Amino acid sequence: MSNAFVYNFDQVQNEMRAMAKELLESGEATMVIGWEKGALPYQSTPVMIRSAEDVDKLIWDAYCQQNLSTYLIDYIYTDEKVAIFAKGCDTRAYNRLIQDNRIKAEKCIVIGVPCPGMKNAREAARLPENAEVPMANACKECRYPNPVVFDKRVGTDVTAWCTERDFSDVEAIEAMPADDKYAFWQSQYTKCIRCYACRNICPACNCTSCIFDQSASGWCSKDINASENQFYGVTRAFHVAGRCIECGQCEMVCPSEVPIMLMNKKFIKDIDSLFGAHEAGLDTNTPAPLSHFSVSDPEEFM
Amino acid sequence: MERVGVFICHCGSNIGAVVDCARVAESVKDYPGVAFSTDYKYMCSEPGQEMIQNAIREHNLNRVVVASCSPRMHEKTFRACVAKAGLNEYMFEMANIREHCSWVHAGRNEEATEKAIDLVKMAISKVCNNEVLMKGHAPVTKRALVVGGGIAGIQCALDIANNGYQVDILERTPSIGGKMSQIDKTFPTIDCSACILTPKMVEASSHPNIKLITFAELEKVDGYVGNFEVTIRSKARSVDMSKCTGCGTCMTKCPGKADDEFNMNLRKRTAIYTPFPQAIPNKPVIDRESCLKFKSRKEGKDVCGVCAKLCPAGAIDYEQQDELFTERYGAIVMATGYEQFDHSIYGEYGYGKYPDVISGLHFERLVNASGPTQGHIVRPSDHKEPKTVVMVKCVGSRDPEHGKSYCSRTCCMYTAKQATMIRDHCPDTKVYVFYMDVRTPGKLYDEFYNRTREEYGVEYIRGRVSKIYQDGETLRVKGEDTLLGRQIEIDADMVILANAMIPNPDSERMAQIVGIGYDKDGWFTESHPKLGPVETHTAGVFLAGACQGPKDIPDSVAQAGAAAVKVCALLSKDQLETEPTVSKVDNKLCSGCGLCVPVCPYKAISLETIQERVAGKTIERQVANINGSLCQGCGACTVTCRSGAANLKHFTNAQILAEVDALCQTIL
């Protein structure tokens, strides 16, 4: 985690502004998506910049968590050529979106930004103003802080601070008796208000028409109660299984603090043991483990 | 307005003795949608079916539920029954209250009846959501492909061809003939194998409806019943088939030598060769592994070329390459045969390292007049006639620990045959047979076995061989005679092992290419062990011969004929009915993510570009498109599709949820 100390946000920020300016002035991009400073010190929010004059709005600090890749979907049917700044996780999301056929590489410019790990905004809100803010949960476990794909890039590569996957939190839940496990998730999803923020931010949740928006799908009602909410949570975990890039955005944006990544990590752990280790979004060629047919797939139920 | 008729079948006492059928009928009569409900002893009987048809007319029913046995049994019957009364056949549902209820809950009649009621309610809820579906039609390519040119493949092709249909035989080796061409005599009649096989080979090669594709392999199979698109790899023969006259001059001076696999490596052959004198086509191939020219080319040189110099027709073509070509077929018959189990895993038989411990097929070549010894039975090591021969049965068969769990069915008879042949050729030679059991269930088989013992004086010892080891020139065979309960030791000159039959080593890959099932041992799986022994679960693909399981020649030939009849029945149709129970995609829900494309085992899904108006602008985007002829209705796409755009007709999400709702309501 020492990277955070030597990492010079300001320098990278300057490079980002210069890059955005160049792209917009040359007309190579019609829009640049980055981050601007939000209303609070621990908030940095997405910003769409169309004019070179506005590039100074762009900032780069330890709160630029939000994954910008998902915005690319909105411009797929326009004439825009959109440039985005992309951290390691954002580039994995970008690869996933390409694989899901939701964006086209030729309409996008990916500007890779090596990331020192973002801070935990939720904790920052709770802590006194000058306290040391810990790293965001997902970032602590990040193994790919550098962009895995890019057209252009700013900054210099950082060294990954985490090399091994840590499933101890999943194992702790697995070790619980079934009733306790159920009670745990029941208590978590009782808090859920079905705001769908987790879905909206998720790069794997990229359907044109989400099943939870279809009133007559028959699978899940619009009722907000523990049962329906759990059904929503489990279904969403199934839908992103094998395609989750572990950016942790879902959990970061959840206003009810449901430990969504815990469920996603359980799926990742199970998929790894059943179908072999898989890291979603590292490239666009490796098929998602649950999304292709192979005659050698295990069929222990047959 | 749904008007459902519910018919509860007693199936004699199969259901009626456990489930209170009258109570089931009574308890659903007021269930939403039900207009009529009754029970009857045999719904599938003619009066039963009439009852359904009359009820449809009398009560103006537009949907029918029959609660009886598995749909595997009678779904067809009842669909036809309601169609006769004017309903669409998909406005029918079956509740399985026999296999799923009375049979598994016998003795718990009250609970079984409750469950039957639930199952019937689920079926009613489903049928209320059913939609009218129409069968489709697909044309039939009136040509068959037989994969494998052994006796099963040849016979099957002949039977198909004689029915007037075109058929291609695809053979991996340079010649058709298969294992039967390696065998010397056939039991129980001891007629010469080649003498009865070669006329069939000639008939196949000269038949106007048969095309031989030899030295070629199956590469890919696309398409579906009636319209398979098969990609075949024609391996480089290095001989131009159109120029070669089969004179054989090329083989006379070839300096390249290789183990002669046709003769079980008991002698050498040339690098340019035909596997055996009666080979069809009788045109040689160059084995590039042992050809001096090809070997030297690997080292950057280019030597020899004797065959090209000798060939009067200029047919030798060293530059030939493998060629891929695609053909269309209406049906495919798999006849890929068997291989011999490798006994070298057995330490007790010397790990395959004693030259005079040979397998049954080795013996066939030894005793064959065109074999390496011109038919003299001699030991491979020193070419002396053996005075004592020990034969061991069940080598690899019936040995779940190290070999195969199954009985190879042919070994008892071929061992008896080989024993009599040894006694015929070498009357002074003693023959001992170690056996676990003697199984001779075939016409004239047991008589043959009895003659082997009684007339030919072959000594059968019931017991296993525990060890064979070389002691000077002799092979010392230690074993147990379990009938006398004593250890025995025989000094043998030669040991013949009755090796098990195993599937073609490539069978699993072949099954995957064609899309058929195989069992734990690699044998192809038939669609039903009793009632569908030559069909597979893939429509249009049939099985002939030992690729389905160990078989002797008569059984292989019989099965080949059976497969041919099935093929002809298929090819005789101008059009095939296709099931409408296939997947469909709702374009407005589809994101075009394409994840359903690789997940489809039948390659039935592709992405197509559609135009759509979005915010006043026409855009082009991709959505999944399902080929209804290729789709087999497995539903893999529907569970991959997150937004629920893919839906399986007749098993739609709404229909299945209606069933779940019906069940949950009874529980709550």
Q: If you had to describe this structure to a student in words, what would you say it looks like?
A:
The complex is a heterodimer of chains A (302) and B (668). Chain A is built from eleven helices and six strands. Chain A has 302 residues and is of the alpha/beta class. Chain A folds into two domains: 151 residues, no CATH class; 108 residues, no CATH class. In chain A, strands 1, 2, 3, 4, 5 and 6 form a six-stranded mixed β-sheet that branches. With 668 residues, chain B is an alpha/beta fold. Helix content of chain B is 28%, strand content 26%. In chain B, the strands form twelve sheets. A five-stranded parallel β-sheet of chain B has the order 10-7-6-18-29. Chain B has a five-stranded parallel β-sheet with strand order 20-27-21-22-23. Chain B has a four-stranded parallel β-sheet with strand order 2-1-3-4, sandwiched between helices. In chain B, helix 13 links the parallel strand 22 and strand 23. Chain B starts with a strand and ends with a helix. The mean pLDDT of chain B is 95. Classes of the chains: A alpha/beta (302), B alpha/beta (668). The interface between A and B is medium-sized, with 22 and 28 residues.
